[in-house]
Design goal:
The chain is an alpha+beta fold and about 160 residues long. The protein has 2 domains: about 70 residues; about 80 residues. It is built from 4 helices and 4 strands; from the N terminus they run H-H-H-H-E-E-E-E. A 4-stranded antiparallel sheet has the order 1-2-3-4. Strand 3 and strand 4 form a beta hairpin. The radius of gyration is 22 Å and the shape is elongated. The chain starts with 8 loop residues before the first helix and ends with a strand. The relative contact order is 0.11. The mean pLDDT is about 90. Keywords: Membrane, Transmembrane, Transmembrane helix.
Amino acid sequence: MPVPARAYVKTLVLVAVALLFLLPKGGGVWFGGVFLFFLAWALYNVVRLLLKRGERRSRAIRLAIWSAALLLAGATQVHWQHASLDQANAVATALVSASKRNGAYPTSLDAAGFNSAALREEWGITYRLYEGKPQLSYPAVFMPLALMEYDFDAGQWKTNAH
């Protein structure tokens, strides 16, 4: 017996609300909790799929809807993670080049030729010179309260959890 489309309205509304939190930049911090909840829910539904013949179609469709939504959210957050790193790498490269050219690191991102307000707003990238040492960071996508900080001596990014 076919299941009417209105039977999935509740699922679609919940998916839409979840995606409101999971799709934007910074939504990766919610992803782990939602994914763990989904795994428990999916396990329950797979067991019900196997045991209850009459519920198979509707449960399989709900599982497919949630799986597609979480796959989309995860892929989006991975994209934000790579895009943030690419943007931050461009800034780090420019800062290192400026220091080699001028003998000192720029005092600000604006002095290095960047729009610091736009970088902070769009990517969360911050830079400052503290006691002559440069500090460049941006927020980690999947970890709340963690920053990715550039180690200018080693030339690589490291995680600094606060």
